[in-house]
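for the writeup, i need someone to sanity check this before i put it in the appendix. the sequnce is what the collaborator sent (i think, or maybe the updated version? ugh). structure was predicted straight from it, no edits. if anything looks off just tell me and ill rerun, i have time this weekend
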Amino acid sequence: MFSNLFLDYLKEQKEEYLFAIADYGKQLLKSNVPPEDIAEIFEDAILKAAQEFPQASLLDIAPNIATPLSELLIGYGLSFREQNELKKQQEELKEIEMSRAKQIYELVLQTNLPVLSGIVINVECIPAENVGGDVFEMIQLDSDRIILFIGDVTGHGMAAALTANTLKILFKDISMFNASPAYICQRLNQIMHKSILPDDIIAAFCCLFDIKSMTLKYCLAGIPSPIILRDQDKIILKPTDIPLGVIGDLIYNEQTIKIQDGDLFLAFTDGLNEARNKNGDLFKYEKIKRVLDNLSSNVYLIVNNLIDEVILFQNKKKFNDDVIILAINFLLKDSEFKFFNKFSTSTKSIFSTKTKSLSIDDFVLGVMKHIQRVSQISETNFGELKITFSELLTNAFEHGNLELSEFKNNFEIYSSEAYQQIYENRRNSEKYGDRKIIVECMFRPNEIEISIEDEGNGFNPNSVEDPRIAENRYKLCGRGIFLAKKYAENIVYSQKGNIVRLFKKI
């Protein structure tokens, strides 16, 4: 084609032929013709021109030969630039979409874990490199029942994140009306079958824990079988149905099994067992079972160790698919056990506990270990953060939830056995002991933000007296906040005074 256009231009020198040549240059790039082939195309055209024109005529038109070549290269170059700009725009749009998908994903995953005495919950949500459609929700229905839902939507990106968000909203609405796992999955299936693409499916697990009857009622439809660790045994939950969205009018079923005090319940999405190493080998469900043989029934360690094993297996920290891991420990008979629940994503971790179940030292240790695990905080900043966090947590515990300020400010009471009696009575009472403390850690590239919220009456932080002034030097209150401010970049209290946010550089 270029040879014909080239000859036509040499004969008539019309602008229309140059426009056509430039357009042909654009088409070459769109056809993935490499730049080095243009020289060959032009050489073929020259040879054809030599045959077409007598020698004298060729000499006459020689000055015009460079013009069509320039137009060919200009057309090719313009198309290359347009393609690059389009590619850049597409990449920018993709980045925007993925950023929004990640934001939606974080919102989809975010939940307030129930806080019940004797039940320890740890949830870890790890987003894939390309955000997928895993979803998690857990709701406390009453003092004895907890219902949870784990879903895994096929695909990645915005569409999967939006579908996951829809699932979560529907689950919350349906479970308030009927808490049967089979009913919930059946209704979700009926609704989602009409709204998802024919090739899409939703793997799901819905489970109702009844602490009073010590039963677990579940519907398992496509999620890897959860495992109950009981002493040295592993109880594998059997599937009940196929995933959601496949058959619109399918009747879903549920199974009921007994749970025992001391059981550890473990559930996870297939991003864990389908992780691959560089050879393409799968981590596999059986390997998870073997790994569990060597792990303790500690909900914090078991989740961390499972993740570490998969990271070691695939030789990278990023996962190709979303991963949700849930571990629940039933320790109802151990009334003295101090515990906290943990819910963690890639950018946020939430720790929650009741006042009566809180050990300051254990809680601080657990939070700080997690921060050290997921961030690159320096040793110096870590030490300063630990001091700051410990002081502010103690304030939320003693001055916030237990309301002990008036007794701590009275030296005679504080130094007597009466104070310890007041402390124990309040800690073990429903009014004070059932109050919760919630700690949120936000992880940013160069900073960690920690908020501590108690359920006390709050206070005016401006009323705290400066312990550096001589008359305040021996007062028991105020030194903790002063010390915290010394080591944090910034400390901000809510208007009520029951929420404090501290900021610390990494």
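The two ends are 63 Å apart (CA to CA). The longest strand covers residues 145-153.
thx in advance!!
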